[in-house]
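Subject: Predicted fold for 3-dehydroquinate dehydratase, 145 residues

User T.R. writes:
Posting the sequence so we have a shared reference for the thread.
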Amino acid sequence: RRVLVLNGPNLGRLGSRQPTIYGSTTHAELVSLCEQAGRELGLDVQVRQSDSEADLLHWLHEAADEQLPVVLNAGAFTHTSVALRDAAAARTAPLVEVHISNVHAREPFRHHSYLSAVASGVIVGLGIEGYVLALSWISSVGRDR
Ligand code: DQA
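User M.O. replies:
I've generated the C-alpha cells; pasting them so everyone works from the same file.
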C-alpha cells in the first residue's frame, strides 16, 4: 500500500538546521529511514519535501483522490495555513501530523496547529522516530480508518 510522507518548508535542511532542536539526521537519511520502515511494514513509502505550499496542497489533493494515507510534517505552515487544513480535511484515508520537536515546549506561536483538528492523530517531540511510529500506526490500526 502506498503511503505519502510529506515534509514542508525548511525540512530539506535537516541535519544542518538547528541540530540542537531537530537533530543531526539529514533529510536524505530521513528518507532512507522511512523507506526502510516501509519495507519492514509492507508499505510503499514515498517521501517528498517542498518549501512551497502549493506543492504540499497538490500532494494532499493526490492523497485525497487516491485515498492514500499521509504522514505530514508541514513545518511552519502548520501554524499558518488554513489552505493546508482544508486540503487535509478533504481526504478520507488516515493522516498523521508529525513534529520532530516538542512544539508545546517552544514559542507560543508554535502551540497552535491548524492541522491537528483534522488529523487522525498527532506525534510531537519524539524526533525523527515520530515518522516511524506514524508509519507503524498506519500499517496496523490506521489501515481501516
Ligand atoms: C516542526 C515544528 C515547526 O514549528 C517548525 O516550523 C518546523 C518543524 C517540527 O518538526 O518540529 O519547521 O514542524
